[in-house]
Amino acid sequence: MPLDQSGARSAKLYRYQIPMDSGVIVRDQRLLQRNGYIIELKDSGKIGYGECAPLPGFSQETLEEVEVQLKEALEHWYQTGLWSDWNQYAPSVAFALSMAQAELSNLLPEQGEYRAAPLCSGDPDELLPVFDAMEETGRQKVAKVKVGLYEPIRDGMLVNLFLESIPDLQLRLDANRSWTLEKALKFAQYVSPEYRARIAFLEEPCKTESLSRDFAQKTGITIAWDEALQQTDFNEIELDSLFGQESLGERFLGEHVGAWVIKPTLIGSLERCNQLIDFAHQHGIQTVISSSIESSLGLNQLARLSAWKTPEQTPGLDTLQLFQTQLEVTWPGCPLPVTLLSDQQLIQQW
Ligand SMILES: [Mg+2]
Questions:
Q1: DSSP code for 41
Q2: Which CATH superfamily is domain 119-322 in?
Q3: 3 state DSSP class of 274
């Protein structure tokens, strides 16, 4: 009699579709619904979930490609109880598989960091109640402002207004590589030098890494890497060699680099994310776990990853309001209705 190799293992692969709030624009495309996959692993009475949701305009992989990879990986795990090297899969696939395994093996702690850095767009007064609540719980007042969408002068004046009117506020800014060096400098010109230290960081101000570094040097404003960490050439770098090679070390560490923004769906496995986080911390750089617009299921796991690996930083997970519903797992305090995983399409089970 052949032994049953699968033992107590089973797996399910779901495909989900969640309607988005109207008017969600992601990199010039209107995102009407979010599509992704949820894997469910069961082994010896334990259960683990993982979300694979390539983000249009950011992820290189398509939904069709990830479905093929997920099926192949789940089949192999079902048969053998083992995983192939996570790095052979697309980042969103590696993230989903590794998170589900981390839940199965109790690696991912239950406690999550659900506090968000609110996104500010116009009037600082609107956010005063949010900042008061932060103060009451003994937190640093921190907010995020997207810049680079309008004239740099307007952005500079807005940031200056926020910093001027709320004296203990720290701002995280994100320009998503939209500025030329000239425009970035114009922005900085409108932010009083005495306030610049309260810009916790400005993510990717310019079109290239070297222009962003020039900007930081010229203005003293701390910058953060986000897109740079998602590039294939970066992800092929062994981290120990990063420090050894002067040019690479300067590129990603450097005097004015204050933070790395870690978006696991775009970076890859939990193991790789943890390597990046540990490496950054060893070199005095903060890390911020951020969302790639995952459903409430994936977002909860990111909140847990943040509480575990970056407990001193408020994560960048303020994206659930872009959805019309939550999926299976609720986010504390979120008023959106919840859709069950069992109502989504079951693609295959093992
Ligand atoms: Mg960013």
A1: E
A2: Enolase-like C-terminal domain (3.20.20.120)
A3: helix
What is the 224 CA–ligand 1 centroid distance (Å)? 8
Summarised one tens digit per residue, pLDDT across range 50-94 is 999 999 989 999 999 999 999 999 999 999 999 998 889 999 999
pTM over 0.85: yes
Distance 203 CA to ligand 1 centre (A): 6
Q: In this structure, are residues 276 and 262 in contact, taking their beta carbons and an 8 Å threshold?
A: yes
- Compute, in angstroms, the gap from residue 62 CA to the centroid of ligand 1: 21
Residue positions annotated with a catalytic role:
146, 263
Best CA proximity match to 202, nearest among 303, 294, 133, 211: 211
Domain limits, the chain: 10-107+338-349, 119-322
Q: Quick one: 290 exposed, middle or buried, by C-beta within 10 A (0-12, 13-18, 19+)? A: buried
Q: How far is the CA of 204 from the centre of ligand 1 (A)?
A: 7
